[in-house]
Amino acid sequence: MKVKENYINVIPMREIRSTDDLLFPFPIYNELRAQSDIRYDETRKCWDLFRYADIQSVLKQPKVFSSQRGRSTTKTSILTMDPPKHTKMRALVNKAFTPKAIKQLEDNIKDLTHDLLQQVKDQRTFDIAEDLAAPLPVMIIAELLGAEVKDRAFIKKHSDALVAGAKDESKEALQAVVDMQKRAEEELSTYFAHLIQKRKESPADDLISLLIQAEIDGERLTENELLGFCILLLVAGNETTTNLITNTVRLLTEQPHIAEAVRQDPSLIPQLTEETLRYYPPVQAIGRIAAEDVEIAGSKIKKGDYLINWVASANRDEQKFDDPDTFRLDRKSNPHMSFGFGIHFCLGAPLARLESNIALEVLLQTFQDITCAADQLKPIQSTFVFGVKEFPVQAIRF
Q1: Which of the residues 108, 227, 302, 372 has the least number of beta carbons within 10 Å of its own beta carbon?
Q2: Interatomic CA distance for residues 368 and 376, integer angstroms
């Protein structure tokens, strides 16, 4: 079967198909990395990169390895843009993500976390994903953008659809995912086009109003660029932060001694978040396209070839990290690539870290014990996203 460009991001690797492998793929990455630094997958029609040094080299060379995609989407996104336009766009949207702007969200994130946990206070079990990790970033992003509270479920549903993966490589399964993603993008575009028009007529104290008014070198964002950024922020900020929080709680239930150590010393929470980003990364891979003929680790890459950079493998590369398969709160150096690297380093990384740190702090202050209440976890069906659909827990309050 000839693989179309639209399918590159939804076809699973043949080595990672079973539920157990999707829930814990890291031994497979270790095995693939040991076999070869790079390999070409005939089924998916792309190169897989597994080594930290190679992936870092690709991500820091935007002229050689382009972020532009051939997907059907008509929306412009800084995620799929190269310099010099990327440089100007990034400078524009950076105005909304200054340290001061992020810091101002701290109290609101804490209040929302307390409110969400208060809603489940009488339940013997509750779902970390559904009751906390999923709604929290949606609430914050919706507030940032200026979306209404009543629209949060709509936003969450369609942003989740945009990162979904196919169950298998059959033509029917692949087309179903592509069609679902197209519908989700259309729904979100219609929604945000309406919101953008409202803000043009009546500006408010929100991100969309700021971006409408922002200028660099006399240029403003086009409507397509505004729509692309709104959708990008939803997907990157929503799904990533949801899975970061859920993955961290999963880790704490699997290794309760770590939960106790952090409970005893809350100053370790930032290290907890960083090590989770390395150990259980919410995003496993980053795609690029070769803009010219080039050689990587002895393999000849042709112009136009797709490269899948497996950061989940790079984060466990023994050539870069000491004792990489052990979760260590005392890790002195942790240059993981879970937020990317180079000019496309995640714009919302400070916000994701802040949301995770606050959510974990409130959780550990509220509960003296948290255990997993699921007989079998269900992995998110995605090629690039790592997480679980639900994470029910039993929690004992102080």
Answers
A1: 302
A2: 24
Q: Which residues contact 371 (CB under 8 A, 6 or more apart)?
A: 253, 256, 393, 394, 395
Task: Write out pLDDT tens, residues 115-127.
Answer: 999 999 889 899 9
Tally Cβ neighbours within 10 Å of residue 215: 9
CATH at residue 265: 1.10.630.10
Domain membership of residue 74 (yes or no) is: no
Is the bond into 99 cis (omega within 30 degrees of 0)?
A: no
Is 99 inside any structural domain?
Answer: yes
Contact 229, 72 (CB under 8 A): no
Domain range enclosing 13:
5-67+79-397
Interatomic CA distance for residues 337 and 334, integer angstroms: 9
Using DSSP, state whether 283 is helix, strand or coil.
Answer: strand
Enter the pTM of the model: 0.86
d(C-alpha 215, C-alpha 221), whole Å: 8
Amino acid at 167: K
**Cβ partners under 8 Å of residue 286, min gap 6:** 55, 59, 308, 309, 311, 337, 340, 344, 384
For the chain, the domain total comes to 1
Mean pLDDT of the region 107-134: 93
